[in-house]
Amino acid sequence: LVRRRGTVACRAVASSIDASLVVVVHGGGASNISADRKERVREGIAKAATEGYNTLKAGGSAVDAVERAVIVLENDPEFNAGCGSVLNVKGDVEMDASIMDGRDLSAGAVSAVRCVENPIKLARLVMEKTPHCFLTGHGAEKFAADVGIPEIPVEKLITERNKKHLEKEKLEKGAQKADCPKNSGTVGAVALDCKGNLAYATSTGGIVNKMVGRVGDSPCIGAGGYADNNLGAVSTTGHGESILKVNLARLALFHIEQGKTVDEAAELALNYMKSKVKGLGGLILVSKTGDWVAKWTSASMPWAAVKNGKLQAGIDLCETKTRDLP
Ligand SMILES: NC(=O)C[C@H](N)C(=O)O
Question: Which residues form the active site (predicted)?
Answer without folding.
Answer: 186
